[in-house]
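Incident review: delayed structure delivery

Summary: a single-chain prediction request sat in the queue longer than the usual turnaround. Root cause was a stuck worker, restarted by the on-call engineer. No data loss occurred. The affected request and its eventual output are reproduced below so the record is complete for anyone auditing the incident later.

Affected input:
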Amino acid sequence: ISEDKIEGFVLNGAEFIQKIIPEKIYFHCKELENEKLTNLVFHVVMNLPGYSAEHLPYFCGFLSKFEEI
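Output delivered after worker restart:
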């Protein structure tokens, strides 16, 4: 992964999952609108305190506001 693809954020886990990740996926898909989107891969690394599985519910419907993707 090239350095220009790496970003740092200081947010709580829920806010990051619900706001940042969906926007990044949406805008990346819009950039590739005319290309095949079948093999897109996104890697997200998070340093979560405590038990990380507690954050899984925040992924449910996290792309729902972007109906076109």
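Verification: The chain has one helix and no strands.
Action items: add queue-age alerting; document worker restart procedure.
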